[in-house]
Amino acid sequence: MSNSHSDTIPLHASSQSDIDEIENLINASVQSGPATVIPARPPSPPRASIPVSSTPFVQSNIPPPTSISSNQKVPSVSAAPPPPPLYNSSRPNIGASGFGPPPNTLTEPVWDTVKRDLSRIVSNLKLVVFPNPYREDPGKALRDWDLWGPFFFIVFLGLTLSWSASVEKSEVFAVAFALLAAGAVILTLNVLLLGGHIIFFQSLSLLGYCLFPLDIGALICMLKDNVVVKMIVVCVTLAWSSWAAYPFMSSAVNPRRKALALYPVFLMYVSVGFLIIAIN
Predict the structure, then answer these.
(1) pLDDT digits (tens, 9 = 90+) for 28-72
(2) Cβ-count burial of 175 within 10 angstroms (0-12 exposed, 13-18 middle, 19+ buried)?
């Protein structure tokens, strides 16, 4: 015991006073009775527990795969049918019917392009020159207008007049071509300045197709060198060309300005008729 007392180290005076103060506080709290401590926050509600299975894996109802012996053959699985082709040749071309993007004409053969242009020229010629139910509506008649047909009819008429001339054939062709080309442009501008509801190139196409009867008249007059026959043929073809151009030009402008639009057209066709008769 003497050894244990000798091993202890006496406390400092300040530490002893602190210990005494703590003991006095503890005794005072015990004598006053237990105090109720208000919780800082209400207890949280109980949370639902997630059941955890003691087994690490869940048993499956799928039967285990059977082992295939070397002698047993594996059944063959039929291959899926091939998908249908994206393009069916029996279906109509959507682009050609007016719906969807237009067909690609850059890679088509030249003969297909020529056939398509010729069929368009024949169709527009029927709609303009010959009687049909669409003549009263120029929008329907020349919806698919082109300039190849008018260019061909102007060149053909110039060549026919130059072949009919005995001298200065090149000058005759130049005068006829310039008269027809410049006349068509001037007549189109005249209709537009009068407030006509027509496209510029559509009007050029119309005036060019109306030259078809005069082309026939010039060809007949080249074959029959007779003044009387020439006059009769020119009068008939001139009336035919004027009749072909009348409904389109008259419906494009105001009815009060109809004469101002039709008179220059008639005057140009009369000039062509005089050229056909005068050239010999």
Answers:
(1) 766 665 555 555 555 566 655 555 555 554 555 665 555 555 455
(2) middle
Amino acid letter for position 149 = G
Q: Which residues contact 137 (CB under 8 A, 6 or more apart)?
A: 251
For residues 112 and 143, the answer to whether their CB atoms sit within 8 Å is no
Among residues 247, 9, 237, 266, the alpha carbon closest in space to that of 127 is found at: 247
- Cβ pair 279, 221 in contact under 8 A: no
| Cα–Cα dist 104/69, whole Å | 60
Q: What is the DSSP string of 40-70?
A: SSPPPPPPPPPP--SSSSPPP-SPPPPPPPS
The three-state secondary structure class of 27 is helix
What amino acid is encoded at 147 in this protein?
L
Q: pLDDT tens across 176-224, in order?
A: 899 888 988 998 898 888 888 888 888 888 888 999 999 999 999 888 8
